[in-house]
Amino acid sequence: MVALLLALTGCTSTTEPDRPNGSDEPETVIDLLQQDWQHVPGVTPDGAELRVTATGRSIVEQDGGGGQPDPPVDLAGTHLVGVGDFSLRASFSDVTADATLAVLDSPPVIADEFRLEPAGLRLTLRGDDLGVAVFDGSPPQDVIDPRPAEDEHVTLDDPEAELSVHRQGDQLEIASDDTTVATLPLGDVFESGELWLGLSSADGSFTVDGLTASAPGSALATAGPVAADAGPSPDGLQALAARTRPDFLVGAAVALGPLASDEDYADAFVGEFGALTPENAMKAQALSPRQGEYHFEEADALLDLAESKGIAVHGHTIAFTEAMPRWMRELPTDTDADRQASAEALLDYVSTVVTHFRGRLDSLDVVNEPFDVDQGTDLQDNVWRRVFGQGYPVVVSQAVHDADPEVRQFINENGADVPGPRQDALRQLALDTNAQGGHIDGVGLQAHVYDLGTDAISADDLATTFAAFEDAGLLVRISENDVTDAEGEDAQAEQFATVAGACLRSETCVSYTTWGVDDRYDFFVDDDGLQQGHDLLFDDGEPTPAYDAVWEALAG
After folding, report:
1. Which of 233, 373, 399, 424 has its CA 20 to 30 A from that of 221?
2. Per the domain annotation, does 293 fall within a domain?
3. 367 domain-assigned
């Protein structure tokens, strides 16, 4: 058995670790093992302990490459607030390969293809090696391979000896058996007043026998997700739209991190919107990073929150080329036997996921972005097509229906917002799928406007589009609307209002969703590196002119 004892202290003296600076002031002590860990992938309460197992979570790039690790953080459970001077103690045992404790100033930002590591400390024990990595929260040079500001490895003479990690001002001191083994600069890493905790293993498992936080005085406390305290606004976007069309949904794509940690974000989402689309938490790479293993914890946290607020959920997504875990992407398809085995694996995935969420989803993207990424009309060559052939949407739709016959099914695609070959192909794919036994209710038109010169969507084009799908007996969702501000905020606002207003006026358009809530979390990578977008209705907690324009459009 390997045991590890950690003490993180914000004091200037380690002579009395239970009383920083030798103070007689009473301490607040919190037993973190008794807090809420149920929504953390790979962490299972076991009596008075926590058992941590590797999840294999990673974020793949659009081309299927990469695989940036995405170790879980306790987002929907407990985090610490009112943090000044503090101590955090943990004891680990039964470490089969490695054990990591992350102590973060804030949750990581999860984009479609990368994770932005927040300021914080990551301690990893592997045998007699202790890795100490300090991240300062600055933008990384390489987003898929972030480098810590400080990174040191210490060989422990006795891995079972007591290990203390002391924060002394802007210094991090690591000691083993009261002997200092390393000192690293911390800078402003622990200045947010909050601590977010993560427990993970890359390759094995371990047990957490003890985990306590303490601080002098009574300021230190635990808190849950800030969205729990948010409420709907009587004049929010959803409330306005419902006055015209009671069943019409106004939604946004949402991530658990900011919803749990950012009060502005939580207030904006819960106050304004009536539908939630998980940005990444329901994609295959998040739900089943390893074949036959499922991690529903973070998706369940989002759905629990939505249900508590009376917010509808649109599931996103089942079959999607760009968000498959490696095991799914690499399923063999060379022989009939290969394809049969791979078909069973894929259908098991569909059945397990849809059954798990049965009765909790208003609608679901059963197939997402099926066509070529170059804006063509051919189906992408993905594992679904290689296993089931050109008619794979039929197979997926039938499997979804078998698991949940009540959920409304959609095929979601980009570049099909205006009349043209791609829109025609999308409409025909839905019709053909149903003619062959599928259950498609409608299509999602993403309405990404990255360039107002080439991507702009007019009210006339939308009216023509909605009429065409209505004639085909299909519903429409505006599913991922965002608009660049490159031509100025007025042009951005006008485009947002055009799309939202046209959708509200068409009975066949049943919902309007923006791809995100606040520009504070809108990041992408181009040839110049990491960029922050300004494409949404809120920017740094404040409504933008685009919000005002959408408000007016929905108010009529």
Report:
1. 233
2. no
3. no
Which domain covers residue 153, as residue numbers? 4-223
Task: Kindly report the backbone phi and psi dihedral angles of residue 175, in degrees, each rounded to the nearest multiple of 5, phi listed first.
Answer: -130, 145
8 A C-beta contact, residue 290 and residue 325 = yes
For 70: left if phi > 0, alpha if psi spans -120 to 50, otherwise beta; the answer is: beta
Q: Could you read off the pLDDT of 1-43 as tens digits, one per residue?
A: 344 444 444 433 333 344 444 456 688 999 999 999 999 999 9
Q: How far is CA 45 from the centre of its chain?
A: 23
> Quick check: 512 and 249 in contact, CB under 8 A?
yes
Q: The domain spanning residue 86 has which CATH number?
A: 2.60.120
- The backbone torsions φ and ψ at residue 324, rounded to the nearest 5 degrees and listed phi first, read -90, 140
Taking alpha carbons only, the member of 547, 513, 537 closest to residue 276 is 513
Q: In this structure, what token pair is assigned to residue 549?
A: 């324009």
What span, in angstroms and rounded, lies between the C-alpha atoms of 513 and 501?
12
CA atoms within 13 A on the CB side of 472: 26
Contact 226, 261 (CB under 8 A): yes
3-state secondary structure 410-429: EEEECCCCCCCHHHHHHHHH
Q: pLDDT for 459-490, tens place per residue?
A: 999 999 999 999 999 999 999 999 999 999 99
CB 328 within 8 A of CB 349: yes
Which contiguous run of DSSP H or E holds residue 340?
helix 336-357
Token pair 């303490």 is found at 214
Structure tokens that stand for 446 in this block: 């993403």
**Does residue 179 sit within a domain?**
yes
- Which residues make Cβ contacts (< 8 Å) with residue 209, sequence separation at least 6? 3, 49, 91, 92, 93
Q: How many domains, the chain?
A: 1
- What 8-state DSSP symbol labels residue 529? E
Is the omega angle on the peptide bond into residue 317 within 30 degrees of 0, that is, cis? yes
Buried b vs exposed e over 17-41: b needs ≥16 C-beta within 10 Å? eebbeeeeeebbebebbebebebbb
H or E segment to which residue 270 belongs: helix 263-272
CA–chain centroid gap for 71, Å, is 12
Tokens 């422990």, residue? Answer: 156
